[in-house]
């Protein structure tokens, strides 16, 4: 492993770094906002600066990744990490705190967008040219956590558009040529159950459900 | 799960808390030193104060745990967490930053001591009365990480006495009636290999090697 690219500072994006602390050398690439969130937590100091190079990446500027890849971070509507929220966080801010990654190898492009509160015009342009997209599949229904009693928040309150509904991801991403793969799927999301009506609905709409160990050939 | 008791603030003791952030209610019991280390890291704010009760425990004072258990934290020689180290950390300090737990149910007592730079007189007294001890088994030889090139530190530099040698754990814990089980075993430690000379040596000395899912009946 030569590099880690972060799309935000949320626990599910950063806690894994703590298991990479055993003097393994790699580059840690993220926006200034994400690096600042890490720097404010002394526990990430276990990533020894002599071993892990923290490199700040600007939005919408291409940078090289090992293996002949080019990558670019871009703002996606969303919110800052839970532990950085104030009393009334903006849920669809477009900043370096919540980004997607476009990875290019020659003419092939992969988009990775694990958290999106909506699809903006710039994101639409990237979706148009992508060959494959890994996209936010957090909740199927915006209120599913409220409905099943697992939490008081809607998906939109967490900065995620739902899959279902008029304003949902299935509708928003229905028209692209890219292979569309859902990721960042909450454990309440019924698309995780093979054969469920919700799973059949996303499959009928042409979406795949990501799984551990998945290999994507472009 | 009703309670979590921390013996320190090191990554391997605290990072797991980040996966318990899904509005699961429990008591988080630790010394003032350990709670301060958590409080200095905003990321642990994902453990919502309305759901997780942080309770500070004094050393050498019994407190109740759910299920009719009594517990007590006590200082064990060791050092503070890696990310709190200054230039020259004390390696065998006896403070609330590195503790053991004595858990009692009726007349039965279990000791859990995952990090120990030595065996002090008070620890000796607790070992004498214990029925079972889970004890620091980090390294077999003090210099094994240096010798095999995985890192520049000795076990003692990390606040852990080695298993082997005159001043090692096998010698220090040889004379107690308690069932002795080694835990907190580094991935360089050859006792993890069944049938290795080192594994046979610890077994011949009457020690067991802890494993995932182990059940201990007192």
Describe this structure in words.
2 copies of one chain form a homodimer. In chain A, 17% of the residues lie in helices and 22% in strands. Chain A has 6 helices and 10 strands, in the order E-H-E-H-E-E-E-E-E-H-E-H-H-E-H-E. Chain A has helices spanning 11-14, 32-39, 121-129, 144-147, 169-172, 197-204, and strands at 3-5, 26-30, 52-56, 63-65, 69-75, 99-105, 108-113, 132-136, 179-183, 207-209. In chain A, the strands form 2 sheets. Chain A has a 7-stranded mixed β-sheet with strand order 4-5-6-7-8-9-10. Chain A has a 3-stranded parallel β-sheet with strand order 1-2-3. In chain A, helix 1 (11-14) links the parallel strand 1 (3-5) and strand 2. The two termini of chain A are 21 Å apart. The interface between A and B is medium-sized, with 22 and 21 residues.
Strand order of the largest sheet of chain A: 4-5-6-7-8-9-10
Largest sheet, strands/sense/barrel of chain A:
7 strands, mixed
List how many beta strands of chain A DSSP finds. Answer: 10
Q: Strand share of the residues of chain A?
A: 15-25%
Secondary-structure-based class of chain A equals: alpha/beta
Shape of chain A: globular
Let me know the average pLDDT of chain A: 96
Uncertain regions of chain A: pLDDT < 50 for 5+ in a row? none
Instruction: Tally the helices of chain A.
Output: 6
Give the largest chain-chain interface (CB within 8 Å): A-B, 22 and 21 residues
- Could you spell the SSE succession of chain A in H and E letters? EHEHEEEEEHEHHEHE
What is the subunit arrangement here?
Answer: homodimer
State the share of residues found in helices of chain A, binned by percent.
Answer: 10-25%
Using only C-alpha atoms, the radius of gyration of chain A works out to 17 Å
Kindly report how far apart the N and C termini of chain A lie: 21 Å
